[in-house]
Amino acid sequence: MTRFFLRLAICFALGLAATLPVRGFAADDLDQLEQQAISAAVKAAEKSVVQIRTIGGVDQIDGKTLAQGPTTGVIISDDGLIVSSAFNFAQQPTSILVRLPSGEQKAARIIGRDENRMLVLLRVATDEPLTAAEPALLGEVRPGDSAIALGRPFNPEDVSVSVGVVSALNRMFGRAIQTDANVSAANYGGPLIDLEGRVLGILAPMAPPSPGASEADVTAGAEFYDSGIGFAVPLVDVLAIVDRWIEEKDLHRGLLGIGLKAGNPHSTAPIVTNVWPRSPTAIAGWKADDRIVSVDGVKVDTQTALRFQTMPRYAGDTLAVTLRRGSGDKAKEIETKVRLAAKLPPYAHPFLGVLPERSTATGDDEAKAEEEADEKKPADAKPKKEDAAGFVIRNVWPDSPADDSGLRAGDRIVKVGEKKVASAAEARAELNAKSLGDAVELLAKRGDEELEFEVELGELPTGVLEASDLRATGAASEESSSLGDPKLQTLKLPEMSQTARYFQPPSGGATPGLLIWLGDGKRETAEAMAADWQRTCVRDRLTLLMPEPADAGGWTNDDLEYLARLLQTAGSRWRIDPSRVVIAGEGKGGQLAYALGLRGRKMIRGVAVVDSPLPRTLEVPENNPNERLAILSVETQNTPLSLLIRQDLKKLEDVGYPVTQLVRRGEESRSTTLDAATRAKIGRWIDGLDRL
Question: Where is the PDZ domain (predicted)?
Answer without folding.
Answer: 253-327, 389-448
